[in-house]
Amino acid sequence: MNATPVVSTVLLRNVPLFSMLPEGQLQLLTQVLSRKPYPKNSTVIAAGDPTDAMYIVVSGRLKVVMSDKEGQEVILAILNQGEYFGEMGLIAQAPRSATVTTIEPCELLTITRTDFTKCLKGNFDLTMNVIRGLVKRLREADKKIGSQLPERISPSACRGILTLP
């Protein structure tokens, strides 16, 4: 499937990441984003892959997963219209940390690492929106981890944890 470079500013205005940008910035984004359909059960990115782009969900739903030590799939998030993924690896310049697979047919926008970096350098509002998104995901991860901890940990267990190598 070939990417179709047809993205309107109206579509971008409905993506929370871009909704506060002025029309001129949206126009610039239309020139660097590409649009591509993905069928149900397609792997969009796989954990360990090099990071080369960020994705924005135009339509459909996707799941973000990692495998635990036993090889069981752990769902980190379900992504819907207007949400985005792949920005962490672009910022950290690290391989993909999770796999993202379509739950239903999807249409995604893609921006390359080079264009993403140029956009961030040239737009404080966009940069702040990306940072807010990262903070939101960090807080959600904290909640998930916190909900899996026991209510109380005994003092002896705390000492044991603190003395681990």
Textual characterization of the structure:
By secondary structure, this protein is an alpha+beta fold. The chain has a single domain, classed as Jelly Rolls, CATH 2.60.120. The strands form 2 sheets. It has a 4-stranded antiparallel beta sheet with strand order 1-8-3-6. It has a 4-stranded antiparallel beta sheet with strand order 2-7-4-5, with no helix packed on it. A hairpin with a 5-residue loop joins strand 4 and strand 5. The longest helix is centred in the last third of the chain and has 24 residues. It is globular, with a radius of gyration of 18 Å. The model has no long low-confidence stretch (mean pLDDT 82).
Name its key features.
165 residues; alpha+beta; Jelly Rolls; 4-stranded antiparallel sheet; 6 helices; 8 strands; globular
Write the layout of secondary structure elements.
Layout: H1 9-13, H2 23-32, E1 34-38, E2 43-45, E3 53-59, E4 62-67, E5 73-79, E6 84-85, H3 87-92, E7 99-102, E8 106-112, H4 113-122, H5 124-147, H6 155-162
Strand-pairing-aware structural class: alpha+beta
Under the CATH scheme, which architecture would be assigned?
Sandwich
Q: Given the structure, what is the number of helices?
A: 6
Strand content: 15-25%
Biggest sheet overview: 4 strands, antiparallel
Q: Regions with pLDDT < 50 over 5+ consecutive residues?
A: none
User: How many distinct domains?
Assistant: 1
| Terminal residue distance | 50 Å
